[in-house]
Amino acid sequence: MHAAGPKNPLHGITLEKMLTDLEAHYGWEMLGRMIKINCFNFHPSIKSSLTFLRKTPWAREKVEALYIDSLPDLGTPPLEVIVEATDPSEPTQA
User: Fold this and answer.
1) CA–CA dist 2, 5 (Å, integer)
2) 37, 41, 48: which is closest to 27 by C-alpha?
3) Could you tell me if 35 and 66 are in contact, meaning their C-beta atoms sit under 8 angstroms apart?
4) What is the Cα–Cα distance from 7 to 78, expressed in whole angstroms?
5) What domains can you pick out in the chain, each with its CATH number?
6) How many H helices and E strands in the chain?
7) Are 70 and 25 in contact (CB under 8 A)?
8) Burial code of 63-87, b = ≥16 C-beta within 10 A, e = fewer?
9) Which of 23, 17, 15, 24 is nearest to 59 (CA)?
10) Tens digit of pLDDT for each residue in 22-73?
């Protein structure tokens, strides 16, 4: 497992969000080629994949690693950009 905290790129990202983003970007067929697990290759769905990944740590680690590697392609800004954009010293407008 990864360390918790704001420096962790997976901090605040649910497994469902990771899987949804990866499926939207790559599709089930490509996910099944990249990570060879049956839940991506035979009758894939978010629900069945989540069930399997929550019970299988090695498979979840592969999905997390792919998600981290894919962050630039997914259009998610790096953590440093998010932190800089939310400067707590600046007043918010209501």
Assistant:
1) 9
2) 41
3) yes
4) 11
5) 15-72 (1.10.720.30)
6) 5, 0
7) yes
8) bbeebeebbeeeeeeeeeeeeeeee
9) 15
10) 999 999 999 999 999 999 999 999 999 999 999 999 999 999 999 999 888 7
